[in-house]
Design a protein that fits this description.
heterodimer, A: 238 residues, mainly alpha, Nitrile Hydratase, Chain A, 2 domains, two-stranded parallel ribbon, 9% strand, B: 219 residues, alpha+beta, Cyclin A, domain 1, 8 helices, 16% strand
């Protein structure tokens, strides 16, 4: 049974691999792929395979096409790191909320209307001048969807998954964050159904800012723990 | 399974490269794969552990080569066929087998908001004594199961301290193979970086790993 399953996965993958090999140079030259990141070559026929599977599932009545569109729309437009940023900003301006967020995160996050799929059981870890928390999933791609949306490619990549636990400071350096020697680094490996949100430090000089203005400063990366929040939002920051 | 997916502590995988202003999906088909996986999950023919296991079964060289959503596609096809929702012949032809009946999708567009907001908890409200208490020293068991497990290789045999008890959750090792939920306590266990990696690590640094009762023994 198992050998058969693996053979099948290998067969599908080999066919895809052959397509990818022939397509490597075209992929590199494709202007749509001009961005500087090393995602693996994608077989040119993936779009066709997926379309074929989708029409099969719709024809068999296994999925509703409108439900698929609604799911895509939800994660492209409704769920994302702006949710988490609201949570962080509220914690910065409201000490009682911050306390609730740290002690009963699911309820506190639900107060702002967020929660659910892949965020059923949240843990909020607070960064301070003495302690720096960062989050990884070494085994797959676990990530708190309701507050951060779907994870970026780098979070799911082999370099991040492999090195975050053995060389967190080196990984942070690649994100441009050099931590002082005496700071304590805590890496949270998401091996179970707990999902982690980092509560970053509120930057100095933001005392006069409104909650909304503060939320606009909070980046996705700061809530994963690979960046700090800057007092001013830089253009194009993730 | 001591597979290539269990990456914690490996080296030489290259630098972490961040893409600025990254889209949620890089191609429309990626969103379609994501949505099909979520929508077919509503048939309850598998669980999250079985889904993770399906991707772990991708042969290692292919696992490393494939993009994320290619792995999801391969895993989804595996789940759909292994659990009998479609046949391989249907996947290959893209057409329902002649004479096959048409089902009614369990998930409709107007339910998405509710289902996503509700989630699918694997926490179980059963009264079960915790084997370990916060502050207790423990050792991660040195086990090498050939099926699915969430006990990462880099922690096996290592000494840690129970940080907190998260409550009782479904056990992935059995659930992934439909052998029962076997619920048990999950803890945050703190492992010092020196215990895991030796003197090259900073003495104050640590890794917190979520672990089920069956992954731990008293130290």
């Amino acid at each position: 049974m198992k050998a058969t399953r693996r053979d099948f996965l290998a067969t599908a993958a080999t066919a895809a691999g052959a397509a990818a090999a022939g397509d490597l140079s075209a992929h590199a030259q494709d202007p749509e792929h001009g961005h500087a990141h090393a995602h693996q070559a994608v077989p040119s026929d993936m779009a066709l395979r997926v379309k074929s599977l989708e029409s099969l599932l719709v024809e068999k009545g296994l999925v509703d096409r409108a439900a698929l569109d609604a799911l895509i729309d939800t994660y492209e437009h409704k769920v994302g790191p702006r949710n988490g940023a609201q949570v962080v900003a509220r914690a910065w301006v409201d000490p009682a909320y911050k306390q609730r967020l740290l002690t009963d995160p699911d309820k506190a996050i639900a107060e702002l209307g967020f929660g659910g799929q892949q965020g059923e059981h949240m843990v909020v870890v607070e960064n301070t001048p003495a302690v720096h928390n960062m989050v990884v999933c070494t085994l797959c791609s676990c990530y708190p969807w309701p507050v951060l949306g779907l994870p970026p490619v780098w979070y799911k990549s082999a370099p991040y998954r492999s090195r975050s636990v053995i060389d967190p400071r080196g990984v942070l350096r690649e994100f441009g964050l050099e931590l002082p020697e005496d700071v304590e680094v805590r890496v949270w490996d998401s091996t179970a159904e707990l999902r982690y949100l980092v509560l970053p430090e509120r930057p100095a000089g933001t005392e006069a800012l409104s909650e909304d203005a503060l939320a606009a400063l909070v980046t996705r990366d700061s809530m994963i723990g690979v960046a700090k929040v800057l007092p001013r939002r830089e253009g194009g920051a993730a | 399974m001591n597979g290539v997916h269990d990456m914690g502590g490996m080296q030489d995988m290259g630098p972490v490269e961040e893409e600025k202003n990254e889209p949620v999906f890089h191609h429309p088909w990626e969103g379609q794969v994501f949505a099909m996986y979520r929508a077919t999950g509503a048939w309850h023919k598998w669980n999250i552990d079985a889904a993770r296991y399906s991707r772990e079964l991708i042969p290692p060289a292919e696992y490393l080569r494939m993009s994320y959503y290619e792995k999801w596609y391969a895993g989804l096809v595996d789940l759909l066929t292994a659990r009998g929702l479609v046949t391989r012949a249907e996947v290959e032809s893209g057409r329902p087998a002649p004479g096959s009946s048409k089902a009614t999708p369990p998930l409709r567009a107007n339910q998405i908001h509710e289902t996503e907001a509700l989630g699918a908890s694997t926490k179980r409200n059963v009264s079960l004594a915790a084997r370990f208490q916060a502050g207790q020293r423990v050792r991660a068991r040195n086990i090498n199961p050939v099926g699915h497990t969430r006990l990462p290789r880099y922690a096996r045999g290592k000494l840690g301290t129970i940080d907190r008890d998260y409550g009782v959750f479904v056990f992935p090792d059995t659930n992934a193979q439909f052998l029962g939920e076997n619920p048990q306590h999950v803890y945050a266990v703190r492992f010092s970086a020196r215990e895991l990696w030796g003197d090259q690590a900073k003495p104050q640094d640590s890794v917190y790993i979520s672990m089920w009762d069956d992954y731990l023994e008293p130290a």
